[in-house]
Design brief:
Distance between the termini: 28 Å
Strand content: 15-25%
Number of helices: 15
Number of strands: 23
């Protein structure tokens, strides 16, 4: 039962969870969400077919019908849930994790996320308590449903002519293979790698935040003289970008760049959401445009809900998730990549490169996320907070996902991992010297007092 997490169900298949767990989760979904029909999709992982069979049986045994869309990206399931009026959906996927993992992402009406606090915890309790799962007198049925054409028609509304661009694209052997060539074409100006679906992920793990996984794309950008590189994760709900020099771009900075499309082109100034780890540069770039920033917790279960609550125009996370009012307040790697390509095409017409546009946003030195392994996560967070707040006066303090503490020339975020004995630390400062100083002091506090190891 170790596969139940804050945002979804996910773990090593056959170790953390198995076919029986998949069946029981699926059986209880109609009860939890009061649904008599459930939309189901799956990624291309080797174990997804077996899980898919168990999920369909569980839903049908509970008396509900399945509308099976087959192989799909996770955002396709969000689209199907909201567009066709389903009150329950399941995507079988482990997102960006390695091939031995698998999982389930559950959504309800209007593609709202169902995380642990919104119902997965209740299902876990029912399973642990051994709540009976009798076969309904009238079992449900399975109906095949094709949605890809509708999904792409919906998406094309946001795409412009980008034929002036040379594009490099890494499909990660994942679910972006369903749509990338249909959307972006196969002309001489677009270069694909790892463009077949293969749930073993033979070329690299489908996580674009790991530096080694992006190296093939960076090389492709340089070899082809591309204006931009695009890489999706395994289930295509995340996307990461590389500039024309072959350099990785921190995903939070793209929240700022999207202002060129939403504010500059469409005049939608409204609220914009960022996660608690996002660079201060994002707000400093967008606020003069007339946007108002909101900061919230990490993860779709929190971010999508918050964007809906505030009726935000768009938002994003350091992990490469981007959320859109235009897309049912949900995340879509495809929509994010289309918007960024639109922007880069316009920049090129102005004689400006992507790296130049990013340089106009960045004003800080950033540590990236640093993991410290330790057991007493709360005690360690408090120690870091207490030290720095005693040293100088904070200009802002947030305590809803670990701590974010801002000072005049630097800020930090320290937050616990939900699943591992790690503290995740991120720091940003106006100079490299100040950044190194704050990282060193934090490491000293955590190592001396809590036995932390990086």
């Amino acid at each position: 039962m170790g596969a139940f997490h804050a945002y979804d169900i996910r773990g090593i298949y056959g170790v953390d969870w198995d076919r029986e767990t998949a069946y029981k989760v699926a059986y209880f979904i109609p009860r939890l969400l009061k649904a008599d029909k459930v939309l189901v999709g799956r990624d291309c992982r080797v174990s997804s077919d077996e899980i898919h069979d168990a999920v369909l049986k569980g839903i049908n045994d509970a008396g509900a019908d399945v509308y099976d869309i087959g192989l799909s990206s996770t955002p396709m399931v969000y689209f199907g849930t909201a567009n066709y009026g389903f009150d329950a959906s399941i995507q079988i996927t482990a997102s960006h994790n390695a091939a031995k993992y698998n999982g389930m992402k559950v959504s309800t009406t209007d593609a709202q996320a169902v995380g642990f606090d919104a119902g997965l915890g209740q299902i876990k309790q029912w399973i642990e308590e051994g709540v009976h799962t009798p076969v309904a007198e009238k079992r449900g049925k399975v109906y095949k449903k094709e949605i890809l054409d509708d999904y792409l028609a919906f998406m094309r509304k946001f795409y412009k002519d980008v034929s002036n661009l040379t594009i490099a694209m890494d499909l990660s052997n994942g679910m972006s293979n369903l749509f990338a060539k249909k959307m972006f074409g196969e002309g001489e100006n677009i270069h694909y790698i790892f463009d077949t679906m293969d749930g073993r992920f033979p070329n690299h793990e489908p996580n674009p935040l790991v530096e080694a996984n992006v190296v093939p794309l960076e090389n492709l950008v340089r070899e082809t003289g591309a204006d931009v590189g695009v890489i999706y994760d395994g289930d295509a709900d995340r996307v990461v970008f590389v500039d024309e020099k072959g350099c990785f771009i921190s995903p939070d900075l793209m929240i700022a760049l999207m202002g060129k499309y939403y504010v500059g082109e469409r005049g939608l100034k409204g609220l914009v959401l960022q996660d608690i780890r996002s660079s201060k540069a994002v707000g400093e770039y967008l606020e003069p445009m007339g946007c108002e920033m909101r900061t919230w917790k990490v993860g779709r279960a929190f971010a999508a809900k918050k964007l809906r609550e505030i009726d935000g125009v768009w938002g994003g996370e350091l992990a490469g998730h981007y959320y859109f009012r235009d897309f049912f307040y949900s995340d879509s790697g495809l929509l994010a990549s289309m918007i960024i390509l639109n922007i880069v095409a316009d920049l090129k017409k102005e004689g400006k490169t992507l790296s130049q546009a990013i340089a106009e946003i960045v004003h800080y030195k950033n540590s990236g996320e640093i993991n410290f392994r330790l057991e007493d996560k709360q005690g360690a967070m408090d120690a870091v907070k207490d030290y720095f707040m005693a040293e100088e006066k904070a200009t802002a303090f947030m305590d809803f996902d670990g701590y974010r503490i801002e000072f005049p020339e630097w800020w930090l975020n320290i937050r616990p991992s939900n699943t591992e004995p790690y503290l995740r630390f991120l720091c940003e400062a106006t100079s490299e010297e100040l950044l190194r100083e704050k990282i060193a002091k934090t490491e000293e506090i955590l190592t001396k007092n809590f036995g932390a190891k990086r």
